[in-house]
Amino acid sequence: MASPKRLQGLTAATITPMTPDGEINLSVIGQYVDYLVKEQGVKNVFVNGTTGEGLALSTQERKQLAEEWVTKGKNKLDHVIIHVGALNLPEAKELAKHAAVIGASGIAAIAPFFFKPTNKDTLVAFLREVASEAPGIPFYYYHIPSLTGVKIRVEELLDGIKEKIPTFQGVKFSDTDLLDFAQCVKNNKEQFVLLYGVDEHLLSALAMGASGAVGSTYNYLGKKNNLMLEAFAKQDLVLAQQHQFCTGEFLSFVFKLGFGVAQTKAIMSFTSRIPMGPPRLPLLSASVDFIEKAKAKMDSLMV
Ligand SMILES: CC(=O)N[C@@H]([C@@H](O)[C@H](O)[C@H](O)CO)[C@@H](O)CC(=O)C(=O)O
Questions:
Q1: Where do the catalytic residues lie (predicted)?
Q2: Mutate to test the pocket of ligand 1, among 141, 216, 218, 257 (most ligand atoms within 8 A of CB)
């Protein structure tokens, strides 16, 4: 589904639905696509990333999920980006090749984070090998230093990258360093898409010139965030702030209770009524107390 459209607006970092006994549950992906499009107004997905527990899945499971999202998203979604990053190069290359063969609209990769690249050149060399397995589709770098520990500045990484990786299309920037992000925009806005990945700070990133956003909360707060994007586009900053404050109030509430992928699965399950199941060990399911409190907060805010 190589899409001619440049990636913009909201992209949901998809959750991986699982059965109660911890197997991936492909049977609900069709329903999930319809929910995102019809109820949240979100037409782009980022599959097998952090929220999707991509690094906790087997290669076979990652391929099955990628295939299901591409198949069920056909003629409904604009972009299905498959995250193919892995701790070892052969696996990342295999997943990249697979994503291209099944017709994904793009691929993305994090930096490997057990043996880490220590400078820009080694990171680019790794990413270049991965991207070259999918030469017909766009490649995005997934910058998430809080989880990878790879802190190479994106501004530095982007300098000259197109010569090394011809399919390089942009960055999913999941970090709060807005100075680095702003420099990326300033130097590359025409050439690359710069997608922001810290949902609670999206309005600030829009002010810096973000092309769009990728995140977990767009699964269930997509509609509200789309209203914020619309208000921002109309230069109605006060209204845009109201929307950001509203989603921020929910996130601030759940952060205090303890928030991560498991809690995202629980929130999505009660919001969409699609069972997302438990996370995979070492993550543990959200508590009943969390679910009750988060649901009550959501109900009070989204009236
Ligand atoms: C660390 C983390 O999981 N960050 C999320 C955010 O969407 C995050 O859940 C949100 O901003 C709430 O903190 C995304 O950046 C991750 C993401 O897009 C992904 O699942 O690949």
A1: 142 (proton donor/acceptor), 172 (schiff-base intermediate with substrate)
A2: 216
In a domain, 144, yes or no: yes
Evaluate whether residue 280 is within a structural domain. Answer: yes
pLDDT in tens, 243-297: 999 999 999 999 999 999 999 999 999 999 999 999 999 999 999 999 999 999 9
Is position 142 annotated as part of the catalytic site?
yes
Query: How far is it, in rounded angstroms, from Cα 265 to Cα 270?
Result: 9
pLDDT category of residue 232 using cuts at 50, 70 and 90: very high
Whole-model pTM over 0.95: yes
- Residue 231's domain comprises 9-301
With 0-12 / 13-18 / 19 or more C-beta atoms within 10 angstroms meaning exposed / middle / buried, residue 56 is middle
Quick check: is 2 in a domain? no
Q: Would you say residue 4 lies in a domain? A: no
Residue 138 CB coordination number (10 Å): 23
Identity (one letter) of the amino acid at 161? I
d(CA 235, CA 19): 44
Q: What local confidence, expressed as pLDDT, does residue 189 receive? A: 87
Nearest CA to ligand 1 atom 14: 215
- pLDDT band for 3, please (50, 70, 90 cuts): low
- Domains held by the chain: number: 1
pLDDT, residue 196, reads 98
Select which of 141, 142, 196, 220 is catalytic. Answer: 142
- pLDDT of 169 strictly over 90: yes
Say which CATH number the domain at 85 has. Answer: 3.20.20.70
Q: Can you state the percent helix, strand and coil of the chain, rounding each to 5?
A: 50, 15, 35
With the most atoms of ligand 1 within 8 angstroms of its CB, the residue from 82, 140, 174, 252 to mutate is 174
CA of 220 to the centre of ligand 1 (A): 13
pLDDT digits (tens, 9 = 90+) for 16-74: 999 999 999 999 999 999 999 999 999 999 999 999 999 999 999 999 999 999 999 99
Q: Is the CB of 271 under 6 A from ligand 1?
A: no
